[in-house]
Amino acid sequence: MAGGELDPKHGHYLGPWGNFGSQTQKGIITYALSANRQKPFAGATRSAVFNTYRRSKAQFLYVVPPFAAAYLLMNWAIEKNEFYNSKEGRMTAPEESDDATQGGPVRG
Questions:
Q1: Phi and psi dihedrals of 12, rounded to 5?
Q2: Average of pLDDT values for 10-33?
Q3: C-alpha–C-alpha distance, residues 19 and 3, integer Å
Q4: Exposed, middle or buried, 14 (CB in 10 Å: 0-12/13-18/19+)?
Q5: How far is residue 103 CA from its own chain's centroid?
Q6: I want to staple 20 with a disulfide (CB 3.0 to 4.6 A). Which of 8, 14, 46, 104 is the partner?
Q7: Residue 15: how many CB atoms within 10 A of its CB?
Q8: pTM score, two decimals?
């Protein structure tokens, strides 16, 4: 059955996929290169470097400020902990009742 002929059971037959009953085109020349002859990674390293830079630059303000804040907070906490566990820090810290360590009553 050629394209466009009436099929009594299914109506119009348009032809196989890619050939929907139209006339074949003339004057169109296509060229192809085999997949194993191409260079699939041509320019990949250069593109990867610049694409990574572009994408990182776009995410900079979303990533760096929280990490900087976390670093500063952790650094402050470590310094405070080291101070409180030093001899000078123990002297300046408010006195706590050390009943449990002194043999006094244990609350619980």
A1: -80, 135
A2: 69
A3: 8
A4: middle
A5: 56
A6: 14
A7: 15
A8: 0.46
